[in-house]
Amino acid sequence: MLVLLAGGAGYIGSHTAVQLLDAGHDVVIVDNYSNSSPEAVKRIAEITGRPVRAYEADVKDRDAVSRIMQENSIDCVIHFAGLKAVGESVRKPIEYYRNNIDTTLTLLECMNEHGVRNIVFSSSATVYGEENPYPYIETMRRGSCSNPYGWTKYMMEQILEDAAKADPELSVVLLRYFNPIGAHASGRIGEDPQGIPNNLMPYVSQVAVGRRDHLTVFGNDYPTPDGTCRRDYIHVMDLADGHVKAVEFAARNKGTEVFNLGTGTPYSVVEIVEAFERNSGVPVKYEFGPRRDGDLAEFWANADKAREVLGWTASRTLDEMCRDSWNWQKQNPEGYGN
Ligand code: NAD
Ligand code: WQD
């Protein structure tokens, strides 16, 4: 299949591109590099030994996306092209709604124009909101999101589901990611946040490589075994494999299906730091600080549906997640900026 990766130069998109190519599919990347680098595209080609076609374009630009679909006979779209920083979304809600919702509408309009029938969407565990019990299961009610970023995911899920209801030919797969970390085992592609990282693993690995002095652990008085928050961390390569399965599933399905992509096992912040130290051999200085607004004490996935329907399970261990994150960070201390 020829798969259009909107936002395919980013963290999850680049790893998915590698796994799709290795599985024998072809990819076309569209990215405006607002949060990524063309260097990632070169490295996808280097890892796979396959040429990668990439367009620098804004996915909100209908003419550009339509032209790309005209030039390439696309079988499936994966929509990664979103802004994703939770705190920034609180400060810049309009920018987040504009980018995330417009990209979705533009892709759907162009797919309709060019007869593309399958779309896989990067959703998030954040759509389960603040009120559901864990582990989260796909049938739970969505909503009560704690920030505009989360609401964009909620709304985009709704838009895609409504589009599939109206068009019996359309196949929509909503993938709700838990906490992706890790990198390709080669260390050639990985997560390269701009500025100060918001997320835990890039912060930990930047402390280890000497770019940051210490990690602040946000809260140690949660009702969890060690008092720090617990999350369902998943290796980005497992997540990428989930996309290969989802694309293949989308091609044989109609309507909307939702899948959690997580491991089903939570780890605490302190457990992550300790696992990172064990696997890198580098001490990570940390201090306990106040809780971060909007953080939930803990949550994790029920990933049974993905196993049963897609035949997918996350197989990589926490040690592999830490080892591969470190391998990427130490080879690329400044990310793709090197
Ligand atoms: P990322 O920022 O690394 O990748 C997103 C890519 O989209 C970037 O390359 C960026 O340049 C591109 N992009 C953004 N807006 C665009 C536009 N208008 N036109 C063209 N390109 C555009 O993020 P990621 O971690 O790879 O996440 C991919 C998707 O998965 C996002 O939608 C994100 O919200 C979602 N997601 C991520 C996580 C996570 O923890 N990383 C968790 C759940 C969901
Ligand atoms: C993990 C844990 C923090 C940084 C976010 C989004 C979610 C999804 C994934 C996109 C938490 C703690 C973190 C630090 C810390 N993204 N932490 N010190 O918040 O679970 O999820 O990313 O869709 O929507 O909300 O991930 O990596 O930010 O935090 O103690 O410097 O690490 O409190 O418990 P989170 P995270």
Outline type: globular
Rg: 19 Å
User: What is the beta-strand fraction?
Assistant: 15-25%
Cα(first) to Cα(last) distance is: 34 Å
Structural class: alpha/beta
* Helical percentage: 40-55%
Q: What pattern of helices and strands is seen along the backbone?
A: EHEHEHEHHEHEEHEEEHEEHEHH
Mean pLDDT comes to 97
With strands numbered from the N-terminus, the spatial order across the biggest sheet is: 3-2-1-4-5-6-11
Question: What oligomerization state is this entry in?
Answer: single chain
**Bound small-molecule species:** nicotinamide-adenine-dinucleotide, UDP-4-deoxy-4-formamido-beta-L-arabinopyranose
Stretches where pLDDT falls below 50 for ≥5 residues?
Answer: none
Which sheet architecture does the biggest sheet show? 7 strands, parallel
Q: Quick one: how many beta strands?
A: 13
Number of contiguous helices: 11
Explained architecture:
Helix content is 41%, strand content 17%. It starts with a strand and ends in a 7-residue tail after the last helix. It has helices at residues 11-22, 38-48, 62-71, 86-91, 93-114, 148-166, 200-208, 236-252, 269-280, 304-310, 318-331, and strands spanning 2-6, 26-31, 53-56, 76-79, 118-124, 171-177, 179-181, 215-218, 230-231, 233-235, 255-261, 267-268, 286-289. The relative contact order is 0.15. It has eleven helices and 13 strands. It is globular. Helix 5 (93-114) runs parallel beside helix 6 (148-166). Helix 2 (38-48) links the parallel strand 2 (26-31) and strand 3 (53-56). It binds nicotinamide-adenine-dinucleotide and UDP-4-deoxy-4-formamido-beta-L-arabinopyranose. Residues 7, 9-13, 31-36, 58-60, 80-82, 84, 99, 103, 122, 124, 177, 180 line the site of nicotinamide-adenine-dinucleotide (NAD).
